[in-house]
Amino acid sequence: MADTVVGTSPITVPAWENWARTVAARPARTASPESEDEVASLVAGAAADGLRVRARGSGHSFTPAAVTDGLLLDLAGLSGLTTVRRRPDGTARVTVRAGTPLFHLHHLLAARGLAMTNLGDIDKQTISGAISTGTHGTGLRFGGLATQVCGVRVVTADGVVREVGVDDASGTPERELFELARLGLGTAGVLTAVTIEAVPAFWLRSTERPERLGEFLEDPDAFARSADHAELYWFPGTHRIQAIRNVRLPADEAAQWGTDRSGLKGRLRQLRQEARGLVDDELVTNGVFEVACRLCTAAPILTPGVNRFASKALAARETVAPSYRVFCHKRRVRFREMEYALPREAVGDVVRELADWHHRSGEPVAFPVEVRFAAPDDLWLSTSRGRDTAYVAVHQYQRMPHRRWFDAAERIFVAAQGRPHWGKLHHRTAQDLAEHYPLGDVARVRRAVDPDGVFTNSYADAVLGTGSAGTVR
Questions:
Q1: Which residues have a Cβ under 8 Å from the Cβ of 158 and sit 6 or more positions away?
Q2: Cys-Cys crosslink for 229: which of 39, 93, 187, 246, Cβ 3.0 to 4.6 Å?
Q3: How far apart are CA 44 and CA 157, in angstroms?
Q4: Which one is the CATH code of 204-420: 1.10.10.60, 3.30.70.1660, 3.40.50.11720, 3.30.70.2520?
């Protein structure tokens, strides 16, 4: 059991567990600060007492990124938008408190005619947790969420609040702290605020339809180029995919859709669209899918037939809506996930190898494989660093064995020069990853801002290397 800080009176609390139930923590203390000053005081106090400190968001990482035996901070009390600095071209720099969930941020931005330029398909994460673990969406011209960050406020190990960002000169300690803070597994300190480059709100036309896996494998690049944001789900044991193509609407067309929705016909069309989405997302994707997964758990031999049924259950549909409503989906069926970032040119061969292994092994896999794309960037720890990227994610229902499937997939991913997602299951270490990232720079900055290892844990040290003396317990 642990102590939680409420004023000066500690009370007993149970261990913390993440959403996927893959990791749990039993910290010595927990706290729920509601201000930046409280965070600074808590960090300084924990460091003085020789305790490690980690901040947690919504718990959507599958890895032990947030686990600590010291002080675990819940940042839910640091939520909301603080400043909006608009530009003549309609873009804006928006500062938001670090514990703000993405699903809340969507509405805060939309109310001001703004949006994030790209998002992942789950929006339960906090903004700080999402950027710190490399969350991304899909689209050949778009990077992960951290590429949209232009500044942060971070509490370092000495309890000092530092504001750093892209406007700091390259090569300076401030700019290097920013590079580690915006995507660094929380090893730079505790984020209290994040500034993002927001764009004018936009709409997407989303087209979903079943297609043949072979069509994708013939020319993966053609599929990736077929929409601004293209992705697919392949159902193991079948030759079918669910192809999703999201196209950004021109401003005038989006405005017309908004105007049309205000009338009676538009509202009726919207209600029909939402009803169809409710059937697909709530009934098929969550309700029926949960039942199907439980059936596969009880009788794994039925899994191929269930996958064939699932691959046919999602029919073609088209949706036109504000961007965040299209990008993000409700995912209530719990699962395990491994995802690797691959050189884009390797994705066809990798998916083909996954299909071959699955066919040979007969392994019961109840969840589809997901394929997405991203533009190259220059962030120190971005999985898309320096190369055009395709992401391939394998999943398994939480009640079914996943190790054989994930181990086989990881061997295929690693052979293709893949990089593991920082927040999803994998077995890679700093020794393996040194060829992909400037881990020497990462270690140097960690030593400079956190010489006693206040913000480290076993996972961070395993994947990034030991960046500090580590004198805290």
A1: 44, 47
A2: 246
A3: 7
A4: 3.30.70.2520
**Quick one: tokens of 245?**
């193509």
Domain with CATH 3.30.70.2520 in the chain: 204-420
Q: Can you tell me the distance from the alpha carbon of 29 to that of 3, in angstroms, rounded to the nearest whole number?
A: 4
Query: CA 96: distance to chain centroid?
Result: 18
Kindly report the CA angle at 381 between 40 and 389, in degrees rounded to 5? 140
Of residues 470 and 364, more confidence is placed in 364
Q: How far, in Å, CA of 186 to CA of 129, rounded?
A: 8
| DSSP annotation string for 86-142 | E-TTS-EEEEEETT-BHHHHHHHHHTTTEE-S---S---SBHHHHHHTT-----TT-
Is pLDDT above 60 for 438? yes
Distance in angstroms (rounded) separating the CA atoms of residues 411 and 427: 10
What does R_g of the chain's alpha carbons equal in angstroms?
A: 22
For 291-341, the pLDDT digits (tens) are 888 889 999 998 988 888 877 777 788 999 999 999 998 887 899 999 999
- Among 411, 272, 426, smallest CA distance to 338 is for 426
Over residues 278-290, the pLDDT tens digits come to 545 554 466 688 8
Fold of 77-201: 3.30.465
Residue whose structure tokens are 């046919």: 312
User: How many CA atoms lie within 13 Å of 364's alpha carbon, on the beta-carbon side?
Assistant: 19
Residue pair 295/302 in contact (Cβ under 8 Å)? The answer is yes
pTM for the model stands at 0.91
Contact (CB, 8 A) for 377 and 143: yes
Residue intervals of the chain classified under CATH 3.30.465.10 are 77-201
